Amino acid sequence: MNITTTHRALLNRLLPDDRPDDLPVRQGQFHIVVMGSDRVVCLPRTPAAAARLPERAATLNALARLDLGFRTPEPLLESGTGETPFLVLSRIPGETLDDAALDNAQVAESVAAQYATLLSTLARAGADEAARAVLPQAAEDRWRRFADGVRAELFPLMSASGRLRAERELAALDGLPHITRAVVHGDLGAENVLWEWTRGLPRLSGVLDWDEVALGDPAEDLAAIGAGHGREHLARVLALGNWTNDGLPDRIATIRNTFALQQAFYAIRDGDEEELADGLTGYR
Fold it and tell me: 73, 113, 161, 194: which has the fewest Cβ within 10 Å?
């Protein structure tokens, strides 16, 4: 039974101008999102994700006040006590970018330039005192705690060769410096960036899913861009961005190598068996 059937009454109430059976449904790691014509309904996949909904709404409200130069979802309505947990957000127009679009050199350069501008904007926002007052800061021992958690909770689920691979990836995290100078989206994969086409070129219209936003290292977002669009496109973004080469390529590679472990680790914490199995595919 699909989500539009199990939550039909709720969706009819929250999206009165839409027919639930006709609406696209998008599944992320933490939420199932039903896409209405002018708003979206986020339904948490686990009780842990449901408990984080108020924090998510507060973060999105804070981002809306930063004037980032692109659109972010704005909270419109939250579930009340005793209701099925939900969060209604404004819908940002646009679509994700098809990988084949980057085969066109002009499109690829335009997209890379807009990614570079997006990250520069987030870096400037990281220096803004208003942003620093409302956004969480990446903990200094974040990667150590992550590595300890993976060893304790995921290693028993891995094969011997999988544990060896994971240990190499985790050991590299020890060399990461503690950086909190930029606003970091934390999950800047291609599926979370929306584009609108104008005169044959895509224009960045907005960024979704700010669940992991924090003041941190821009290498995290650059690693996600590389994972989503490939190394060649990442190289274009780096060439256009105004970053100092203080070990940035090595930090990007180190963080990117942990993406599957991050997926599995947060899935096991949330009790999400599907995401856990997917994240551990290369470690079994």
Answer: 161
Region class of 67: left (phi > 0), else alpha (psi between -120 and 50), else beta: left
Q: What is the DSSP letter of 247?
A: S
Q: Which two tokens stand for residue 260?
A: 């599957």
134-148, 211-225, 240-254, 258-272: the lowest-pLDDT one:
240-254
Beta bridge partners of 75: 89
Contacts of 208 (CB under 8 A, 6+ apart): 72, 73, 92, 192, 193, 194
Bridge partners (DSSP) listed for residue 206: 71, 194
CB contact at 8 A, 135 and 250: no
Q: What are the C-alpha distances in Å from 5 to residues 22, 64, 237? A: 12, 33, 42
Amino acid at 216: G
List, in order, residues 6 or more apart from 184 with CB less than 8 Å away. Answer: 122, 126, 138, 212, 213, 214, 215, 216, 217, 218, 220, 221
CA distance 115 to 132: 22
Which tokens in the block code for residue 238?
A: 């780096």
Query: What is the pTM assigned to this prediction?
Result: 0.90
Rounded alpha-carbon distances, angstroms, from residue 245 to 22, 219, 225, 238, 254? 48, 11, 18, 10, 15
Cα distances from 184 to residues 4, 138, 157, 212, 235, in angstroms, run: 33, 9, 31, 8, 19
Asked whether the predicted pLDDT for residue 245 surpasses 90, the reply is no
